[in-house]
Design a protein that fits this description.
The complex is a heterodimer of chains A (665) and B (192).
Chain A: E1 4-9, H1 21-29, E2 34-40, H2 46-58, E3 63-68, H3 71-84, E4 92-96, H4 108-126, E5 135-137, E6 142-146, H5 150-161, E7 165-170, E8 184-185, E9 190-191, H6 192-205, E10 209-213, E11 215-223, E12 226-233, H7 248-252, E13 258-259, E14 268-269, E15 272-273, E16 285-286, H8 292-296, H9 301-305, E17 318-324, E18 326-329, E19 333-335, E20 352-353, H10 355-362, E21 383-390, H11 406-420, E22 425-430, H12 440-449, E23 454-457, E24 462-466, E25 469-475, E26 483-488, E27 490-495, E28 497-499, H13 503-510, E29 537-539, H14 549-567, E30 572-574, E31 579-581, H15 597-601, E32 607-613, E33 619-626, H16 636-640, E34 646-648, H17 653-664
Parallel strand pairs in A: 1-2, 1-3, 3-4, 6-7, 6-18, 7-10, 18-29, 20-27, 21-22, 21-27, 22-23
Antiparallel strand pairs in A: 5-30, 8-9, 11-12, 12-17, 13-14, 15-16, 19-28, 24-25, 25-26, 31-34, 32-33
Helix pairs in contact in A: 1-4, 2-3, 4-17, 5-6, 5-14, 10-11, 11-12
Chain B: H1 2-5, H2 8-16, H3 28-32, H4 45-57, H5 62-70, H6 74-77, H7 83-87, H8 94-108, H9 115-134, H10 139-150, H11 159-165, H12 179-190
The chains are: A alpha/beta (665), B mainly alpha (192).
């Protein structure tokens, strides 16, 4: 006869407010097999856990039911508690009284009755639970970092410094990401490239880091500790071993007037080349869509002029597969394109710039060499209007979230402009100014108090053209709020940060979650900010949400620490929730008939063939067998098996049906 | 750029050593001002600061913003208690700015013209006349001067006998010990 202990948690008021916990405990006490039941304010606290441990010893419990929050939250906690008291952890089950009961109901009587039902159901299930042992799996001590911006570089360097091999995959031809495009960085105004390029070089030359630039992740298989990743190396049309990065090819390329992605369309580039002079690796790529050779077979100037014979028009994409144990996703963000803001000069005026475009304009390495000249006619703008919340905090037409970085970069932009154009007027339109961060508010006040930037509290209603003159419709709501139509020579938008447009595809490949906006989801917003819900995959930087450089670097280092902690284990243990093909006495051996419907359906390729032979080696039958390290316990095979020969450890049909039957009683 | 040097904001800077530009519109001055209550100040001290900022930020609207600040009742209703100046997180001397606005308003003949502002101005004038003439305040002359200027002939008249009995009102003005020194000081005040 089983001896079950039931522990009902109030979760402060979360459960206790809607569910009469003492009554639930009392009714549990009367259930067959239950020898102990109690309610407590916070069962997950140390005294609460001690209650469980003491009860296991005192009442010789053979099973534990905790009526509390979702098993996602604390199943691990309570199973550990049981293990500490000598009870097999898989004999502990959670009755979800919070997410599935108190949080979704308001009627106390009905919620209490439902809680009693849930507890009865789980008690019935636990009586049929069997002790299980965790599965040990081997571990590949090698990390994959996806994304070569500052987040990816930082994570890769930290992991590599920890003595672990890293593959750093970047889809553009060079490391650097958005940070390489920035002019100066708040709040210290140090030059972005000056602090970034040494890190790029360091990453490229680190003995533990293997760079895969101009490459993308195609596919991911496996699981924590044992991922198998497929990477597509896109054809550079250059042999990097021969190329010396001399630059002859891009100087001689006749196609020179292509808009430069690195300069956000404000500068020009050739059909062959590196994205920016400090690119790492310093090896060009041919833009096949615009190269004359690839369009009509003529030209080939680069090939003729290359002294080392590095140009190879026949190169093809290469697919490689690698084994890695952990993955850091650091794919970053994009800036909202201005064509998505039709109210602002129809979203296509050359003198209305995105925040990132202004970075290039103000950058010493930019198309104007750092001089502030407007794109339309190259004149120095005398009045620049900075429009904050361009696409952010606009639930109706844009994005409801705050992009977090714009207040600070706008203050920096306005400041840089005033440093470069002394007589110029910098007007910032804002709803409010958000500057949490070390030295941030001081920086923003400096823009006003020392550099004479004018802040007006209002959103720009519209930007229109009046005989070629840009006019920004604004108001100073702190001064009566009457309309001010400001004639602007240049408008800079505090463009919203948005997720990479194709991030959902990547997330689906990797099996990590994302929110409605497209930011990748962390496992817990406070306590597990760098982990995803897929074990072994971590997040770094703005792919998880808009972030400035200090926060990005901190998160990247945190992801590296998580990776190294994972690699510090000798081997991994995982929950033994796996499918199993039954075995029985001869002459049947197993009820499996070897149809292998399961093998076709298994998403993890975990079904193998097993030959059952007699002593002399003669084949008796072929049955299915589940590979323990590949099986993820999804149960697809169990539901498809025609001969009912499959069962899922931890969720056996007997356990599940017992739980259901108890509900019907 | 003569207009710039004459902005009210610049005058406040010159005379108080603090800048309205530094104000970040937190509203603490307005929140703690005993006169910024219904029926008293027409616009808040915070708003006065914003007008002085607008005067600098938008030269094309400077005249209008200055007019709004000068013709508000607020500078005249300010009691000069200094609560705002004491509390300002940015160290702006708001009460000092009110002084500047009163002085400039009279100088430019651009002040609020409501009855109560005129009364307040009358009190200031009578008070100063008495002080300048006698080197000290003579209460009876002050009362009479104020009543003649404002026409509030019987306001608080019942308090007169009681004050007289307590020796708070004297029929004849006293004189300070050395009026010539007072005169020199007054002359020095008049020449900036």
């Amino acid at each position: 006869m089983s001896r079950i202990g039931v522990f009902i948690c109030h979760c402060g008021e979360n459960i206790g407010k809607t569910v009469d916990c003492p009554r639930v405990a009392e009714s549990a006490r009367k259930l067959p097999g239950v020898v102990y039941a109690v309610d407590y304010r916070y069962t997950c606290s140390e005294p609460g856990q001690a209650q469980i441990r003491d009860a296991i010893k005192e009442h010789k419990l053979t099973g534990v039911v905790v009526g509390a929050c979702s098993p996602r939250m604390h199943e691990k906690t309570f199973r550990k508690t049981c293990a500490a008291a000598g009870l097999n952890p898989y004999l502990c089950e959670i009755a979800n009284l919070r997410e599935q009961c108190s949080w979704v109901h308001t009627d106390r009587e009905q919620a209490t009755r439902k809680a009693i039902d849930i507890v009865r159901s789980i008690v019935a299930r636990v009586q049929r639970n069997t002790p299980l042992a965790p599965i040990r799996v081997p571990l590949t001590r090698r990390a994959l970092v996806i994304g070569g911006g500052i987040a990816g570089i930082q994570a890769a360097l930290d992991i590599a410094d920890g003595g672990t091999e890293v593959i750093l995959v970047e889809r553009t031809p060079s490391l650097g990401g958005h940070m390489a495009q920035l002019s100066e960085t708040f709040p210290t105004l140090d030059c972005s490239q000056c602090i970034l390029t040494p890190r790029m070089v360091e990453a490229a030359s680190h003995p533990n880091i293997r760079l895969e630039t101009y490459s993308e992740v195609e596919k991911l298989g496996g699981y924590v500790g044992n991922f198998e990743v497929t990477i597509r190396r896109k054809a550079r049309s250059i042999d990097p071993k021969k190329c010396t990065g001399c630059g002859t090819c891009w100087q001689k390329c006749p196609v020179k007037k292509l808009p430069s992605e690195f300069d956000e369309g404000l500068g020009l580039r050739a059909a062959i080349g590196i994205p920016f002079p400090q690119a790492v690796p310093n090896k060009p790529v041919i833009d096949r869509a615009n190269c004359i050779k690839f369009k009509n077979g003529k030209c080939g100037a680069c090939q003729k002029l290359c002294q080392t014979g590095a140009v190879d028009f026949t190169q093809e994409d290469e697919i490689i597969t690698e084994k890695v144990g952990a993955i850091v996703v650091a794919t970053g963000f994009q800036v909202l394109p201005k064509d998505q803001l039709p109210a602002y000069a129809d979203g296509d005026h050359p003198d209305v710039l995105t925040g990132l475009q202004f970075e290039r304009l103000a950058s010493a390495s930019g198309p104007t060499g750092g001089e502030i000249r407007r794109p339309s006619d190259g004149k120095e703008p005398q009045t620049v209007v900075f429009v904050q919340c361009a696409g952010s905090r606009d639930r109706e037409k844009g994005r409801a979230y705050c992009s977090k970085i714009c207040c600070m970069y706008t203050a920096k932009h306005a400041m840089l402009y005033r440093h470069k154009v002394h007589g110029g007027r910098a007007i910032v339109l804002c709803m409010d100014v958000r500057t949490p961060g070390k030295g941030y508010d001081e920086f923003y006040r400096r823009a006003i108090e020392q550099d004479g930037v004018i802040y007006l509290r209002s959103r720009a209603a519209r930007i229109y053209r009046d005989n070629g003159q840009l006019v920004v419709q604004a108001a100073d709501t702190l001064n009566g709020g009457e309309r001010l139509d400001i004639k602007a020579d240049l408008v800079v938008l505090g463009s919203a940060a948005i997720p990479q447009p194709d991030v959902r595809t990547l997330a689906q490949k990797l099996g990590v979650g994302y929110d409605a906006d497209g930011w990748l989801s962390e496992a817990h917003p406070k306590l597990r900010p760098v982990e995803t819900n897929t074990a072994g995959i971590f997040l770094a930087g703005a792919c998880q949400g808009p972030k400035d450089i200090p926060d990005t670097v901190a998160q990247a280092s945190a992801a590296a620490a998580k990776t190294l902690a994972l690699f510090a284990a000798k081997e991994l243990q995982r929950d033994p929730i796996i499918a199993r093909v039954n075995r029985c006495a001869p002459p049947v051996f197993s009820t499996c008939i070897g149809c292998f419907t399961c093998a076709a359906a298994c998403p993890y390729k975990a079904i193998e063939r097993e030959e059952i032979r007699d002593r002399k080696g003669g084949l008796i039958k072929v049955v299915a067998r589940v590979n323990e390290s590949l099986c993820q316990g999804c149960g697809t095979c169990v539901s498809l098996c025609r001969s009912k020969s499959m069962d899922l450890d931890g969720f056996t049909e007997e356990e599940v049906f017992a739980a259901l039957e108890a509900l019907v009683e | 750029m003569t207009t710039v040097s004459q902005t009210l904001a610049n005058l406040v800077h010159q005379r108080t050593g603090t800048r309205p530009l530094d104000c970040y519109q937190c509203g603490r001055c307005a929140a703690g001002c005993p006169q910024n209550v219904p029926g008293e100040m027409d616009i808040s001290p915070t708003r006065i600061m914003r007008l002085l900022q607008g005067e600098t930020a938008f030269p094309e609207k400077a005249v209008e913003y200055a007019r709004q600040a000068l013709t508000a009742e607020t500078p005249w209703l300010c009691a000069g208690c200094q609560a705002c100046t004491t509390r300002c997180p940015q160290g702006v001397d708001i009460a000092g700015a009110m002084d500047v606005l009163r002085q400039e308003g009279l100088k430019r003949r651009m002040t609020a013209t409501t009855k109560r502002v005129r009364d307040i101005q009358a009190l200031h004038r009578t008070f100063l006349n008495s002080a300048l003439r006698h080197g000290r305040i003579h209460e009876l002359f002050l009362v009479i001067g104020y009543k003649l200027r404002t026409g509030h002939l019987f306001q608080d008249a019942a308090l007169g006998p009681a004050m007289m009995a307590k020796g708070k009102l004297h029929l004849l003005p006293g004189k300070s010990a050395d009026t010539s020194r007072v005169k020199t000081a007054v002359e020095r005040l008049k020449t900036p």
